[in-house]
Write a structure and sequence with these properties.
three-stranded mixed β-sheet, pyruvate-formate lyase- activating enzyme, alpha/beta, 2 domains, 11 strands
Length: 247
Amino acid sequence: MIVREIVARGILSKSKVYDYVVNPYTGCQHACSYCYARFMKRFTGHREPWGEFVDVKINAPDLLQQEIKRKKKGRVWVSGVCDPYQPLEAEHKLTRKCLEILIENNWPVTVQTRSHLVARDIDLLKVATDIEVGMTITTADEGIRHLFEPHAPPIKGRIKALDELHGAGISTYAMIAPMLPKAEGLAGELVGKVDYVLIDRMNYHYSDWVYKKYKLENAMSDNFFIQKTKELASAFETKQIECRVLC
């Protein structure tokens, strides 16, 4: 893993998903096989494979403090093309520092991660006036998770973090994207831990080789997605959890 500390030129960027996005890091240690963010290499000039480099934007909090003073308030996504709670965050705390600034200035925030490290910041998150935390969980099976996300945190740790966040009164959701085999087992695991669930096919093809290597090609089909979405939506409805399908 190549880690560089860099000085960024900007941090609060326009987003097609929310009003703004903040990425304290470029690159991600989780290196999930299906990650769409690898397109960033076209703009950053990195020659290393995706998942083998991270640029740490050491001036991110200072930039954010300046930029929120001159930009119109809007919802901020933390983060869009990196996991804001990847392992390096434990040391650098850039995500926490950026959240402190956004919360102090009453900016609405959506945090998206797949790391239990987010629970470290419950003390901060629970005093925010408008914040939600989303946890990406793509399957209920640890074996499947390991095939596609070998460097990401285990499923149980993510679900435990959701439970802790939700128990602290923080709005939470689960993001099932991409929907991997055995995702249908998540309905029972998420009861009482989330306000809603998002399901998105995220039809990228970076991880096609994983499906083929482990003979999971059937899970790449339209029929698989449609059938599993129906199963999950029905299960969540039974458990009175709102389910939103994005496709």
